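**User:**
Everyone, produce one record:

**Assistant:**
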Amino acid sequence: MQDIYSDKNAPDPNNKASDRYNSSDSSEKGFLEQELKVNPDEERLLHAFRQFHTMKPPEMASCGLARSDIRILFQIYSYVKKHEAENGISASMISQKTHMMKAAVSRSLKQLEKQGCILRVPDPNDRRYTLVSITDSGEEKITEILSSTQRLFDLISERLPTNEITNILKALDRLYQAMSESIDQMESERNLEMK
């Protein structure tokens, strides 16, 4: 995994006994670790999240698109494949399906259009609106991304036995549940404060 620390010899976040990782020396920690009052377990979780976030999967490197662009291109591709009789998908529907802000979707669509991956066409039912469709070049990129993603997961599964994958998934499910409940609790607390 890519290291989020500037020091190449950063401590192992899994090692609770690591003096350097739990050190109060602020130069050893990232910005968030310095600003938040987190206990060692929370700090290790934060470190793990940041490591995953900074990883750049090979499909991104090979196709030259940003994460958000890939996400939107997949959405367009899957929608067009499922609804072949239609001329495309609206930007507002892309925003809904990807849970992305309309402004972010608009930026990505401009980038994807510039790269020749998508095409905007007038909506035949209402010419005031446009629909987004995927081009042959966009489909080629999707095929390339799918192939690269398949290879990545094949390599990961070679390194992790089935029982380890099961344990990881159980742990991730527990983490997701804890995060979801915590977010719900924070929203409830915020709503109570606003009353």
